[in-house]
Amino acid sequence: MKKVRILAVLAFLSVFGVSCQENEKSKSTAYKIAYTSLPSGIVEIYQRNTEGKSNIESTNTKGGYVAWSPNGKHFAFYAKYDEKKTWSIHTVNSDGTNWKRLTHAKNKWDNSPAWSPDGKKIVFARAYKDTDKNWQKELWIMNSDGGELSQINSLKGGGPYFTADGRIVFHTEYKNKKSGISIADIDGSNITQLTHNEAEELHPEVSPDGKQIAFMSDRDGNHEIYVMDIDGSNQKRLTYNDVDDWYPSWSPDGSQLIFSAATGEKREDRTIYIMNKDGSSIRPIIEGGSQAAWLKTVE
Question: Which residues fall within 8 angstroms of residue 120, CB to CB, at 6 or more apart?
């Protein structure tokens, strides 16, 4: 019996030690996140160092739906003009300098920019009402300086995001405000639908290793965060909340996700949360923020 008790104590100490190491590892994680501060509309950067200390830097730039460049030196976003009737894609340095407007289509809503893996291209969504007052939702692509702008004619929808091998995942628009996640080649060929639900499914983002896609879906009643394999298999729900969860973004090592959630009735009442990739250990990190993007470059 004495021997059994000693073995049990040793087993406990071993598990306890691993748990402490994991907790310490979690505390020492460094990361950088860009997001829109909803009270001000200013893009801000939240940074946490290896000692667990954090700070927030303002870029003094108004914008939404931030997307980091692969090298982490710039980000793309959209800003609004003409009493919010025109939305345009912009780029800016991560410190808020060298602000550039890249698109100028009047009465069009250019949004959801995403960089190609080599940083040379930006793909984005364009929405507008045609002459018959029907919404058109298109995908466009351009050089990162705004040159060679062209529509990807065969792709309709929004929320585009590049895979590591240069394909594009996006949400395909259906009738009655329904949508599903699809993947296609950069020229719009080889379209494959990955989800097949009577739901609104949006904002796909590919994991750094290229094996999974995180997205948001209201298939179970309200918007929650889900993941699936890159081919659409093994779909799994990660969040279980009474409020809507939006905009998942992967950590550089693919071990965690951040997302935004409504925490009140006002638009400003949103909080950015962080969780493990299996949906465990959810905790808030930024109040009053939304549309957060995790810098994928490991510094």
Answer: 143, 144
Closest CA to 295 of 89, 24, 57, 40: 57
Contact in structure between 246 and 260 (CB atoms under 8 Å): yes
CA distance 118 to 24: 34
In this structure, what DSSP letter does residue 175 have?
Answer: S
Between vectors from CA 196 to CA 191 and to CA 198, what angle results, nearest 5°? 130
Residue 225 to residue 198: CA distance in whole angstroms: 16
**Tokens standing for residue 282:** 């959810």
Q: Look up residue 269 and give its two tokens.
A: 């009442």
Amino acid at 20: C
Two tokens at 22?
A: 């994991």
- Please name the amino acid found at residue 108: K
Tokens 């108004």 belong to 62
What is the distance, to the nearest Å, from the Cα of residue 199 to the centroid of all Cα atoms in its chain? Answer: 19
Residue 68: name the closest of 96, 34, 97 by CA: 34
* Closest to 162 in 3D by CA, of 190, 121, 202: 121
pLDDT over threshold 60, residue 81? yes
Helix extents (H) in 60-100: none
Residue-wise pLDDT tens digits, 151-171: 999 999 999 999 999 999 999
**252: which 2 tokens?**
């550089």
Q: How many CB atoms lie within 10 A of CB 223?
A: 25
**Contact call for residues 97 and 86 (beta carbons, < 8 A):** no
Amino acid at 151: Q
Beta strand ranges found along 1-103 (DSSP E): 31-37, 42-48, 54-62, 64-68, 74-81, 86-93, 100-101
Give this prediction's pTM: 0.88
